[in-house]
Amino acid sequence: DFVKDLEKDTRKALEGGDEELTKRVIEQWNQIAESEYDVKLANEQIDEMEDCKKDVNRHYIKNAAPNLVKFLLENMMKQNEVPKANDEAASLSVAEAAEICLHEVGICLEEDVIPHVWPFIRSNIRSTNWRRSCAAVVALGATLEFTKSNTLCEDLGELFQSVVGLIESNHATIVKESSLFCLGKFCQRRLDVVKTGKNFPKLMTSIQRSFSEDAKSKAQGISAIQNLVESTLEFSILLPHLPWLIDGLIKAVSTSNKEVSGGASEALGALLGKVPPSRHLLLETTVRELRKRLQAAVERGCERGLSKEQERDINCSQENLTAALAGALVRLGAQVPEVWDCFIVLKDVIKRGMPGAHSDAIIAIGSIVTDKFNGIDLNKDPKHRKHMAELHSVLMNCLQAVDESVFSMCLTLISDIAQSFPSLMAERLDEYMNLLDLAYWTKAAAEGSSQVQVMTCIGDVALEGRMEKHVGKIIKIMDNALLLASKSQSPQNGEGKNDDESEITLSLIEAICDMWTGLFQGLRGEDKELPLMKYVGKLAALMNVMAAMLDHDSCERATVMTCGIIGDMAPYGVKCMEVKKLILENPNVKKIVAAGLKQKIHNSDCDAKSVTYAKTAVENLQRKVEGSVADEQTQTGPKTASTLTHPVPNSPSMPPI
């Protein structure tokens, strides 16, 4: 009954109903199309299973297709020639809603939609009425993916040239935008047509022209570039066009329009990722130009008296230029030119730039630090050492950032610096540890993933040693984390723990292991020993929590990391009785090592080194203990009451009890 009423409303709207009725009808057909597609997918999965009943597909879309597609095409001709104002952009027009619904209908019907839509496309794509030609182009783009095996589409090459002709002519702006959108779909769905004959040169000419058009046309042209680069096209065909492509994208990244700038940043990153090393001069020019434009954007952002609109535009420019430069640095590897100049600009972005650019700047600096500066002796170059010291002060501010992504990236970079430049980290170790300690307790209140990241970062910093002053802070953090892990592990209200709670427990265990590893190995490097006798109870509690999680599907990494802790701890058992008892007598330790060995056999992804390390360390401790007992018995003979160091009841040296 609902569908019958909807079909009546469709005919009524087609005969001239009001806009609200038309929108409602389109929305309801759209929902039916989505539901039928879901049923179709579910039934395809059921085909692979036994004893499962299929959902019934009533094929309402297929039965209504002749009138429904006609209704949608009619409404796709109701475009607005004047682009929407910003306050109207949130609501779809009738034409836009009809276009979306047509695509959903196409997904349901696949190639069966072509007979209903192709006559309209052929009749109207060359029409002098811009609304008709625009609707035909949009309909072509919306259904292009369903044309591959349909014999009705043999004239697709001619339609491609018609689309290009609409861009070259003086049609309305919206027609050019729609035509560029359609060309992007050709690049994505029908590359065979794009590469045929003179089509490719015409495509590149149309894209080049789009750079001088309005923002929406430019955005569609940029989208076509990205589709082209990410397709299976032989990249050599793009080489003659690289200079103007890169130049146009760099200029687009620098604009204040978010859609254009963001799209250009992504397209430029994809393009640079495929440029061959032989074109290194072009790559160097690209990085240099991005760096200069970013520096200029940072300087503009520091000017006084900027309006809110100017600040927004500069923020957009900084954010996307930083993302583009970060992408270039990550992709180009050792070929990056003027690397210190890039480093200085990115550091400046974090220090003085707009907040939106901070995350990408930290990513880019992390790439430089790990890939380009690793192994550099900064003591030989005071200028470079000064830059790194300034970066430290910038990161101190980022650790207090409200933005979670900036905070997270900052922690990652601190870990990278700790590994690449331990001497620099040591100079400011107290400052970092105080801030990381504060960050943990601030984030712990929210009980999110940030506290785990802080703990992992502390573990990386601790690996570099010199942590004697901070052992107390680290132990206190691990106590709190273990308490949280125990809480999330315990069933609540008589119910078993769910997957989310188990994942929290495992992530906390992994972070605690990171911190213990940092303490064990970091202090060992300083010829100091952790006073383990104080902390054996805490290590035993960690083993108890981990042993209870061994049946969980995602426990592999936590098991391996706990094995690493057992391996680090076992050598201390020779001198420390409490450690010896924990390693050799605690059943949970044996369970964890056994689980690790089982993973090593059955899971190729398991970190076999940590598991072997734990097994060997436990066996060595066992041998040393047994060996010391054997040596003592060899030297003194069997232990009797008279040979023991302390008096024993009923021995000759004591009166009978």
In words, what does this structure look like?
Helix content is 70%, strand content 0%. The chain is mostly helical and 657 residues long.
Total beta-strand segments: 0
What is the helix/strand order?
HHHHHHHHHHHHHHHHHHHHHHHHHHHHH
Sketch the major β-sheet: none
Shape: globular
Q: What does the average pLDDT come to?
A: 80
What ranges have pLDDT less than 50 throughout 5 or more consecutive residues?
85-89, 635-657
Distance between the termini: 100 Å
Instruction: Enumerate how many helices there are, as a single number.
Output: 29
SS class: mainly alpha
Oligomeric composition of the shown chains: single chain
Sheet-strand content, in percent, reads under 5%
Radius of gyration from the CA trace?
34 Å
Fraction of residues in H or I helices: 55-70%
